[in-house]
Amino acid sequence: MLLGSRKAFRLSIHSTVITVFLMTTLLTSGVSIGLHYYFSQSFATESALSVYEHTSSSTHDFVENVDDEAEEIAFMLSEFSKLVEADGIDADTRAVFAEVLQRNPLISFITVGFNDGGFYQLINLDANVKIRQQFNATAKDKWVVIRILTNGDRYLHFDYLDAEFAQRHKMEYPTNYDVRIRAWFGEAEVGKVLKSQPYLFQHLQVPGQVYAISLGNSQNVLAIGIALPSLSDFLKRQPLQAGSEAYIYQQNGEIIA
After folding, report:
1. What CATH number is given to the structural domain containing 209?
2. Is residue 173 part of a domain?
3. How many CA atoms lie within 13 A of 12 on its CB side?
4. Reduced to 3 states, what is the DSSP secondary structure of residue 133?
5. pLDDT given for residue 137 in this prediction
6. Which site from 109, 139, 218, 240 is most exposed, i.e. has the minimal number of CB atoms within 10 Å?
7. Looking at the DSSP assignment, which residues form a beta bridge with residue 147?
8. Rounded to two decimals, what is the model's pTM?
9. Which residues of the chain are under the pLDDT cut of 50?
10. Number of compact structural domains in the chain
11. What integer pLDDT is reported at residue 67 of this predicted model?
């Protein structure tokens, strides 16, 4: 009887030890898995935050740099005394505009609005693929010049030019477009560059903003246009995590890119 009791007791201790061992193992494994999951999640979160902070910082610097360069270029061009001749924009001024556009591919166009409602615009077709598509331009087309002359009937002239400014083809249509209705034309000041609110560019049919400045006492206005799809292209090149998207928005919450 006593021997049986001792044997049962030994079996009871053995079972208890095994149970405790198994429970300890399971608990340790559970804690280990939990800690691994926690630190993995924490690392992933920190990594994502680091990427987002870097993207936010680089985007902020990029936008600020775009603003600064556009304002500087607009102001610099406004200082040219012979930017606008008596008969409008000549080949020398066009060459200056083209050089600026070549060196600054984010700038889509340079415009001069005249105080009689006339209009001159040089567009860089390489600035954005949507611009080239809008004008149905071929690979050989590099520039589009848009002009509105006010001596007689108002016509909108389109001149498609190659890289050497040789005319490839042209079009013209009657128009009632008057650049003086644009807010940036009426609000432009001498010696100070105005940045417009985003709006749909009339002829490019893409949203964008202009940097405008009045040209002295002539009441003509120079404007540099940046299409917002160009800013969107910059965002698409940022190293975001899979499934993430980045936007540029104004203080009022309006998304612009």
Report:
1. 3.30.450.20
2. yes
3. 6
4. helix
5. 93
6. 139
7. 120, 157
8. 0.71
9. 2-3, 7, 9, 11, 35, 39, 253-257
10. 1
11. 86
